[in-house]
Amino acid sequence: MAVSDGWQDKAGVIHVHSRYSDGRGTVEAIVRAAEQAGAEFLILTDHDTLGALRDGKEGWHGRTLLLVGTEVSPDDGNHYLGIGVHTEVPRDVPPGEYIRAIADQGGLGFIAHPDYPAQEQYPLKRFPWHDWSVSGYTGMEIWTYTVDWLTGVTTVWRLIKALAAPLSFVDGPFPETLARWDALLKAAWAQGRRVVGIGAQDAHGILYSYRRMFRAVRTHILIAGGWRHDAEKDKALVLEALGAGRAFVANDLLHDATGFRFTAERGSRHTPMGGVLAVGDGVWLKAQAPVRCRLTLRTPDGILVETEGETLAHRVTEPGVYRVEARLLYKGTWRPWVFTNPIYLR
């Protein structure tokens, strides 16, 4: 779906592991899979290493831009993605210290897979985030595809079914994760800060191929004017969009969400998701989807309005944090599809 608003929608995959840590694939094979899946950027985050960066892997590979970050991975949880960094940070220190270390390098930092189901509902070791006293992070994964997909896959038969029909085993972000994100958004915005939500794969290429997984939960960023076809400039575009929260999360396996928009309009002023606008005497919040869906406009305190169709428009007069969710009808059920970052009205 083409939208003529000056922004270009670039869908990518974040949180991927290669043979530099515990992934199955080489970097070259992984980027090839991303290109085949239609991902325009890929952020590699091997555990506690930037080996791929030192080996010169970062840059354009065909039609996919590869960025190399890292996942700080303590044994007991509190995993953290560092993106746009050039030096590894220690994992055997309190989380606040590696959050600061990544920020000090000018990098972005995201809390990884913050929540898990109960152990009896999950077949692997769990690595949730424990230390919610920290600050200084860019944002958090609000939808970690592998954790979602594997929830309830506790027998070989269920694994076979999950591989054959992955959409039937994907329920969307955990409600507790979204509730936590809303609470953090509200508290952060009271201090003028954002908490950016991203979608993540946590892909290892084991059983579930990289290519198939890269077609599922992706993070779409909005950049002005398109790629520059210069690796350093395009890397800066990705980092700037993610840092600003000019992004949304979508399960593109349900339907390609390219072209989804959430904007705020007051007179001649237009602000995309992640943006800030003075509420003045009122602001129109508008969502536009590429296909018919169920659109929900909400704040951290709850739902404001819900409608079915391709568009939503609602006028608000109060400052606050506003975001949109979209669900698609799949086999008779409204399935989670799109989760935007907020627009902030002051």
CATH superfamily of the largest domain: Metal-dependent hydrolases
Low-confidence region ranges: none
Biggest beta-sheet profile = 18 strands, mixed
Determine the structural class based on helices, strands and strand pairing.
alpha+beta
Write down the secondary-structure element order. Answer: EHEHEEEHEEHHHEHEHEEEEEEEEE
What's the total helix number? Answer: 8
CATH-defined fold name of the largest domain: TIM Barrel
The percent range for strand residues is 35-45%
Q: What is the CATH class of the largest domain?
A: Alpha Beta
List keywords for this structure.
alpha+beta; 2 domains; 21% helix; 8 helices; 346 residues; 18-stranded mixed β-sheet; Immunoglobulin-like; TIM Barrel
Can you describe what's shown?
It is a single chain. The chain is built from 8 helices and 18 strands. The longest helix is centred in the middle third of the chain and has 15 residues. Strand 1, helix 1 and strand 2 form a beta-alpha-beta unit. The model has no long low-confidence stretch (mean pLDDT 96). The chain is of the alpha+beta class and 346 residues long. It has an 18-stranded mixed β-sheet that branches. The protein has 2 domains: 247 residues, Alpha-Beta Barrel (TIM Barrel), CATH 3.20.20.140; 91 residues, Immunoglobulins (Immunoglobulin-like, Sandwich). The two termini are 31 Å apart.
